[in-house]
Design goal:
Layout: E1 2-4, H1 8-19, E2 24-26, E3 33-37, H2 41-51, E4 60-63, H3 69-72, H4 80-93, E5 98-103, H5 110-113, E6 118-122, H6 127-135, E7 139-141, H7 156-163, E8 169-171, E9 183-186, E10 193-196, H8 202-209, E11 213-214, E12 243-246, E13 260-264, E14 276-278, H9 285-300, E15 306-310, H10 318-331
Parallel strand pairs: 1-8, 2-8, 4-6, 5-9, 10-11, 12-15, 13-14, 13-15
Antiparallel strand pairs: 2-3, 3-7, 4-7, 5-6, 9-10
Helix pairs in contact: 1-6
The protein binds threonylcarbamoyladenylate and magnesium ion.
């Protein structure tokens, strides 16, 4: 395993490795991805192996130019309305933290889509991700670069800690900017559905295509039905330390138990100890999202018996922050 820089030479090296079927972890604006060529079966299998990820959990295919869509999506199977939605969404929100579920072409390996008739497509905005994808094969399958069920990585160190020895190259692009995974939006049916809230807010999407449904949220099922978006599993995004949630604004009034870590949303009027982290001092929702996984990783490594986290305001990216916190809490 080799850690690479974002220099042109290193990106070329990584791109050649990707095209040859090796795995490359790379930064995106959301979280680090564990990339493999989307059309290479053995690379796809290695992704599942490295993450210890169930085979039925479909991967997102990352592209870096609009022409590649036609290699992956069965555009003929898209209805007129869906085609319109795709064109508006991709025109305004790509590149960016939005994944769109679309009917797949038969050439896309079933291993990538877990046998579903649809494929998850994303055009990341991170320049390093774009360069890497363009220099290699143009279509890179990548889940978040963490072991299945654990916290997503927002730095190269997180990737190293979680996947040491299981990935061929890691491109170190520093801390990721958005910090939360992309929003997964299914537009393959009549009504668009958000399967996973994320880095693009529901409000931004609705301003462009009108009302979308929010899928009923984390599933309580322990085994997955292939129809379900596995990102809906409650046990996703979990630290090892038990975590409990507190409604916004109430945590500051709770007595601190011994050996307890705290994650505040914002800090005005709060007493901050060494076991306290604040997502954003000023309550800036973007800053909070960017800090979420990093601070959970930190608190998780401090040996607490319990982490108590304060809920974020429930609009914009707050929806995605609270979604991840609820899943983390369910695990414990
Ligand atoms: O921000 C992100 O999306 C990151 C970066 C690396 O791009 N990737 C990521 O991938 O979070 P992953 O594999 O951890 O999450 C992909 C989500 C899962 O919840 C998966 O179930 C869902 O997308 N998904 C993929 N294909 C799908 C499909 N055809 N239908 C429904 N859900 C799908
Ligand atoms: Mg993931």
């Amino acid at each position: 395993m080799e850690v690479l820089s974002t220099s042109d030479n290193d990106l070329k090296k990584a791109a050649v490795a990707l095209a040859a079927g090796f795995l490359v972890a790379f930064p995106t604006e959301t979280v680090y991805g564990l990339g493999g060529d989307a059309f290479n079966l053995s690379a796809l299998a290695m992704i599942f192996e490295a993450k210890n990820r169930p085979r039925f959990d479909p991967l997102i295919i990352h592209i870096a130019d609009m022409d590649t869509i036609s290699r992956i999506v069965d555009t003929a199977a898209l209805g007129g309305t869906a085609r319109e939605r795709l064109s508006v969404l991709s025109g305004r929100l790509w590149p960016g933290p939005l994944t769109i579920i679309l009917p797949k072409r038969t050439e896309v390996p079933d291993l990538a889509t877990a046998g579903l008739a649809t494929v998850a497509l994303r055009f990341p905005s991170h320049p390093v991700a774009q360069k890497l994808i363009r220099l290699s094969t143009g279509a890179v399958a990548a889940p978040s670069a963490n072991p299945f069920g654990s916290l997503s990585p927002t730095s190269a160190e997180h990737v190293l800690t979680g996947l040491e020895g299981k990935v061929d190259y890691i491109i170190d692009g520093g801390k990721t900017q958005v910090g939360l995974e992309s929003t997964v939006l299914d537009i393959s049916g009549d009504t668009p559905v958000i399967l996973r809230p994320g880095g693009t807010s529901r409000e931004e999407i609705e301003a462009l295509i009108g009302g979308v449904e929010l899928s009923s949220g984390p599933s309580t099922e322990t085994s997955l039905s292939p129809k379900l978006s596995p990102g809906q599993l409650k046990s996703h995004y979990a630290p090892r330390t038990p975590l409990s949630l507190c409604p916004g604004g109430e945590l500051a009034f709770k007595n601190e138990a011994p050996n307890e870590g705290r994650l505040y949303f914002s800090s005005p009027g709060k007493v901050l100890g060494p076991g306290t982290r604040v997502l954003s001092e000023t309550g800036d929702i973007c800053e909070a999202a960017a800090n979420l996984f990093g601070m959970l990783h930190e608190l998780d490594n401090m040996g607490f018996d319990l982490i108590i986290a304060e809920e974020a305001p429930a609009s914009g990216l707050g929806l995605a922050i609270n979604d991840r916190l609820h899943r983390a809490a369910h695990q414990s």
